[in-house]
């Protein structure tokens, strides 16, 4: 216990009460030693004289009659010192503080202005996920002008699009709160599934909260003044090169095809290096951004070329039943016969339509042995199955179907339940 009084008018600076315990054969009671500064004034002693009957036992080093006596003495002693301190504060003025936390100071204390203090965080400082369609940060793979950027703009109009050099980086941008959403391709009507993103969906803990379908419109781009006859190399994403193979032949271009990371990146590479013998396959927006001319428009072999993108977020959305919903799951089947048939039957018996089923080798268990030791064993790949079905997780049918699926699987995870893309679609022109 420490009692403190200002030094300007009271010489009694501090009283330190130190407990020390002694053990007798009947009862152990605390001893207390009172230490007072030698410079204590007569005025202070006089003011504390009223507490003398209660404190004599302590100053002599003796033991009080009881614990109640000790507590009463301490209370009287503290109240006297506090009374003296209050009187001193009133006489010296409110702007003079001489002792703060036991530290003696004869000058005024510099206080921090209230407006300079840090303000507490609010919920707005934590970048909450805005509602669908409002301005937010959306990560995509590629550079400005990529089809993924166009998909991000279609999914979230007026968003702040954040380019990422790899699919993995887009996932991490959302997980680290650098972005609020990610828009990534999962399948193309001509090139099929983008397996890399299916693997990343399983590796990361993001949730699918929506989908968007984007028609793909390829253009052949080159530097200003360059004619098709001067071209001897075409660069683009491997999928874009495959989707324009026949058209490039019809144009009479006997050129070398070289693959790069993305379509807009190919356009940027041609412009940045001033390559007059190289053309790029990319979008019309990429030509506008990088100052290239369009040598041929709509060069995709199939006008019904469309890519499906999914929107990813850190938290799932609440499933609804009043609008068309789609749910994506991934599972690994357990040991037994006809397991895949039993899983699919769980949806068929409840009239739930499947829109996609995709198998990927199980990386942790790529090989499964079947048979017995006498006859021999056969080796098969162990697979993970990705399934999309038309139902919301708020639908009782979907809940019962997954409960049944779980009986036949060793692993089951819902990747997301989200609204279907119902926007009108027309082939690329």
From TrEMBL:
Entry GO CC: chloroplast; chloroplast stroma; cytoplasm
Q: Which GO terms describe its biological process?
A: L-phenylalanine biosynthetic process
Its domain of life reads: Eukaryota
**Is Iron tagged as a keyword?**
no
Q: Which GO terms describe its molecular function?
A: arogenate dehydratase activity; prephenate dehydratase activity
Domain (Prephenate dehydratase) ranges = 137-314
- This protein's name: Arogenate dehydratase
Q: What is its main location?
A: plastid
Q: Which PROSITE patterns match?
A: ACT, PREPHENATE_DEHYDR_1, PREPHENATE_DEHYDR_2, PREPHENATE_DEHYDR_3
Q: EC number(s) in its UniProt entry? A: 4.2.1.91
State the organism of origin: Helianthus annuus (Common sunflower)
Enzyme class (EC, first level): lyase
Keyword match Transcription: no
Pathway annotation from the record = Amino-acid biosynthesis; L-phenylalanine biosynthesis; L-phenylalanine from L-arogenate: step 1/1
- Write out the entry's keywords from A to Z: Amino-acid biosynthesis, Aromatic amino acid biosynthesis, Chloroplast, Lyase, Phenylalanine biosynthesis, Plastid, Transit peptide
Which SUPFAM superfamilies does this UniProt record tie to the protein?
A: ACT-like (SSF55021), Periplasmic binding protein-like II (SSF53850)
Role according to the record: Converts the prephenate produced from the shikimate-chorismate pathway into phenylalanine.
Subcellular localization, as worded in the UniProt entry: Plastid, Chloroplast stroma
List the Pfam families. Answer: PDT (PF00800)
The record's catalysed reaction(s) read: L-arogenate + H(+) = L-phenylalanine + CO2 + H2O
């Amino acid at each position: 216990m420490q009692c403190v009084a200002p030094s300007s008018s009271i010489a009694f600076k501090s009283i330190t009460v130190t407990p020390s315990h002694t053990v007798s054969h009947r009862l152990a009671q605390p001893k207390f030693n009172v230490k007072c500064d030698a410079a204590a004034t007569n005025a202070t002693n006089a003011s504390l004289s009223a507490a003398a009957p209660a404190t004599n036992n302590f100053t002599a080093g003796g033991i009080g009659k009881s614990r109640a006596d000790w507590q009463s003495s301490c209370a009287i002693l503290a109240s006297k010192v506090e009374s003296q301190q209050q009187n001193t504060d009133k006489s010296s003025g409110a702007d003079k503080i001489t002792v703060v936390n036991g530290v003696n100071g004869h000058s005024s204390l510099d206080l921090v202005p209230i407006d300079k203090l840090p303000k507490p965080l609010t919920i707005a400082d934590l970048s909450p996920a805005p509602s669908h369609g409002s301005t937010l940060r959306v990560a995509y793979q590629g550079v400005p002008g990529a089809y993924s950027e166009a998909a991000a703009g279609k999914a979230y109009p007026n968003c702040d699009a954040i380019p990422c050099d790899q699919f993995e980086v887009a996932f991490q941008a959302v997980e680290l709160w650098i972005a609020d959403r990610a828009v990534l391709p999962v399948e193309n009507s001509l090139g099929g599934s983008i397996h890399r993103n299916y693997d990343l969906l399983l590796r990361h803990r993001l949730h699918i909260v929506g989908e968007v379908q984007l028609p793909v419109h390829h253009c052949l781009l080159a530097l200003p003044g360059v004619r098709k006859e001067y071209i001897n190399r075409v660069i683009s994403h491997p999928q874009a090169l495959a989707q324009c193979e026949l058209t490039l032949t019809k144009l009479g271009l006997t050129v070398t095809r070289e693959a790069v990371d993305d379509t807009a990146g190919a356009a940027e590479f041609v412009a940045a290096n001033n390559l007059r013998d190289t053309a790029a396959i990319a979008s019309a927006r990429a030509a506008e951004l990088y100052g290239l001319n369009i040598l041929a428009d709509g060069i995709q072999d199939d006008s019904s070329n469309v890519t499906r993108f999914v929107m990813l977020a850190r938290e799932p959305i609440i499933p609804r039943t009043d609008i068309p919903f789609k749910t994506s799951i991934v599972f690994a089947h357990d040991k037994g016969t006809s397991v895949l048939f039993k899983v699919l039957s769980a949806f068929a018996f409840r009239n739930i339509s499947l829109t996609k089923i995709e198998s990927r080798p199980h990386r942790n268990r790529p090989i499964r042995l079947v048979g017995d030791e006498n006859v021999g064993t056969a080796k098969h790949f162990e697979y993970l199955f990705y399934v999309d079905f038309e139902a919301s997780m708020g639908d009782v049918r979907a809940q019962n179907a997954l409960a049944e699926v779980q009986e036949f699987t060793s692993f089951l995870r819902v990747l997301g339940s989200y609204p279907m893309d119902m926007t009108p679609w027309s082939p690329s022109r």
